[in-house]
Every structure is written in C-alpha cells, then in structure tokens.
Amino acid sequence: MRRIQVITSASGNGGTTLAKELAARLELPFHELDALFWRPGWAETPKDQFRELVEPVIAGEEWVIDGNYHGKLGDLILRRAELVIWLDLPVYVWLPRLVRRTVRRALTREPLWNGNRETLRSALLSTDSLLLFALRVYRSRRRTYPARLARLRHVRLRSSAEVERFLSSVSPAT
C-alpha cells in the first residue's frame, strides 16, 4: 500500500487523525485536501485550480490523502488510490467529537488552513455550519459510498475498535 485515500461519512470521524497516523507508520507523505482547498477568509479554491493542486500530489507513487471533495474532483483520487479507507463511525461517536473539536477550536482561536479560524457563530448559527453540513452529508454518503467504492480496494471501518485493529495491522512492511 503506497497510495491511500482516507474518506469519512462525516467530519469528526477521525479521518485526519487516521491519515496522519497511517502516513507516519508507513513513512509516506501526508496530504490534507482541506489545506489545499481552503484559502484565507474561508474562500474556496475554484474547481479547476483545486484540481491543478491535487494532480501533482496524486501523480506521485506514495501518499496518504485525507479527504474526498468528490463534488469538486470526481473520482480523480479514487482512481489512483491503491486502498481507500472509509471511516463510517456511528453518529453517536462522531457528533460529540465534532462538537467538542469545534468548540475547542473556536475558544482557543486555533488557526486552521491558511490562517482560517472556526467561530461558534459560524459553527452553530450559520447556514454554512460545519455541524449542519456533517449531519446533512452523513446519510447521503452512507447511501452512495458502497456503490462508489464497490469496484475499488477499500476497507470500511465502523467502530473505534475496528480502527484500532486496522492500525495495529499496519507496518512499513505492509
């Protein structure tokens, strides 16, 4: 496994954490799609430019990519990945994680990609709320991912225990 994409049913599943850990264990470069997509001021990178940023990454022979952006990239990354890891934890696991993480980031003013910061107002009261987005995409991704991933080598991890078992099976020799 030298080209791995980690996708999730919703934010808060632990995709970035898992992708970073896999990259470290396998000694592969780690790439976070959010860092490529979000510009300062939470401006989105236009679709064509985003694709131009991603293409050189996936042209490489080794990488772990965190994220999906199927609406912007289609199956661009999936076609190159040797393994897709789908984190599909239950809502009662990821939603509290997402709320805690969002509140922590807002209160500590933790800088994210390109200096962006989450705020409680945008996280909880905005029509662009990350929490609302996560709840909205959760069901649709759980419906569409099985068919999208059926032809690909993939692993679906549905519990924290499965994530731990998977990680314990990974070593640089894998």
Order of helices and strands: EHEHEEHEHHEHHHEH
Q: List how many beta strands DSSP finds.
A: 7
- CATH-defined topology: Rossmann fold
Span of the ends, CA to CA: 7 Å
Mean pLDDT across all residues, rounded?
A: 94
Helix content: 40-55%
The total domain count is 1
* Overall outline: globular
Low-pLDDT parts are none
What structural class do the secondary elements suggest?
alpha/beta
What is the highest CATH level, the class?
Alpha Beta
Write the CATH homologous superfamily: P-loop containing nucleotide triphosphate hydrolases
- As laid out across the biggest beta sheet, the strand order is 2-5-1-6-7
| Number of DSSP helical runs | 9
Q: Any idea what the CATH architecture is?
A: 3-Layer(aba) Sandwich
Percentage of β-strand residues = 5-15%
Sheet with most strands: 5 strands, parallel
Instruction: Give me the Rg, rounded.
Output: 16 Å
Structure overview:
By secondary structure, the chain is of the alpha/beta class. It has one domain: Rossmann fold, CATH 3.40.50. Helix content is 53%, strand content 15%. It has 9 helices and 7 strands. The protein has a 5-stranded parallel beta sheet. Strand 3 (38-39) and strand 4 form a beta hairpin. Helix 6 (91-108) packs across helix 8 (130-149).
